[in-house]
Every structure is written in structure tokens, then in C-alpha cells.
């Protein structure tokens, strides 16, 4: 995993935006599993919902109207990767990892 991180252009900036503990690496195919229907939260009645934005993967599990809270259109779906210029969510989201190509 370290090799892949270090090979990615801009890896230093990317790593500065992610919490160092529990860092996860997702391909776009991996991210699709976290659409809120396939991966269950341990000991809770929730399904994991992640969304990738500008290379960073955020956990939006259990956040009602998460699209509105982070300032994106309601047609955005979990389990997907998006590139958004000027992305700056109103709410602090939990960063869980990043997407590799």
C-alpha cells in the first residue's frame, strides 16, 4: 500500500488531508460496495455509506440529507467517486481513506 501511495502525484498533499489512523485505500470498484446496501456497520442497524470526492473518501453513514449538508446536488449517490471544483463542505466529514486510479 505504501508503494501505491508514494507513486501517486500529489501524495503529500493528499496524505495531509487524511487522518493517519485507519487509512483505507479504495479503487473505484471497491468504493461501489459502500453504497449503503452491501456493507453493514458492526453492532448497528446501519449500512456503510461512503462517497469519494476529489480523491478523498468520506463516511456519510447515517447523515440525513448528506448531499445538502456538504453542498452537492441531490443526484449524488454513495458508493461513487466525484470530482468537484471548489468543494468545501459546510460540515466536517469523517475521512476514511482515498481513491486510487
Describe this structure in words.
The protein is an alpha/beta fold and 101 residues long. It has four helices and six strands. It has helices at residues 2-7, 11-16, 28-32, 66-70; strands at residues 24-26, 35-40, 47-53, 56-59, 81-82, 94-99. Strands 1, 2, 3, 4, 5 and 6 form a six-stranded mixed β-sheet that branches. Strand 3 and strand 4 (56-59) form a beta hairpin. The two termini are 13 Å apart.
List keywords for this structure.
6-stranded mixed sheet
- Estimate the strand proportion: 25-35%
What is the molecular shape?
Answer: globular
Helix content: 10-25%
- Which structural category fits the helices and strands? alpha/beta
Main β-sheet: number of strands, strand sense, barrel status? 6 strands, mixed
Low-pLDDT windows of residues: none
Q: Give the overall pLDDT as a whole number.
A: 79
Question: Can you summarize this structure?
Answer:
The chain is of the alpha/beta class and 101 residues long.
Question: What order do the helices and strands come in, and which of them pair?
Answer:
Blueprint lengths: L1 H6 L3 H6 L7 E3 L1 H5 L2 E6 L6 E7 L2 E4 L6 H5 L10 E2 L11 E6 L2
Parallel strand pairs: 1-6, 3-5
Antiparallel strand pairs: 2-3, 3-4, 4-6
Amino acid at each position: 500500500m505504501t508503494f501505491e501511495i508514494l507513486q501517486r502525484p500529489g501524495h503529500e498533499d493528499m496524505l495531509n488531508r487524511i487522518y493517519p489512523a485507519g487509512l483505507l485505500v479504495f479503487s473505484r470498484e471497491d468504493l461501489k460496495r459502500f453504497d449503503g446496501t452491501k456493507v453493514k456497520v458492526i453492532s448497528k442497524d446501519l449500512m456503510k455509506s461512503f462517497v469519494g470526492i476529489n480523491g478523498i473518501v468520506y463516511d456519510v453513514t447515517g447523515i440525513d440529507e448528506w448531499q445538502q449538508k456538504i453542498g452537492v446536488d441531490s443526484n449524488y449517490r454513495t458508493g461513487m467517486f466525484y470530482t468537484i471544483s471548489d468543494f468545501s463542505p459546510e460540515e466536517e466529514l469523517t475521512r476514511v481513506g482515498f481513491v486510487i486510479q
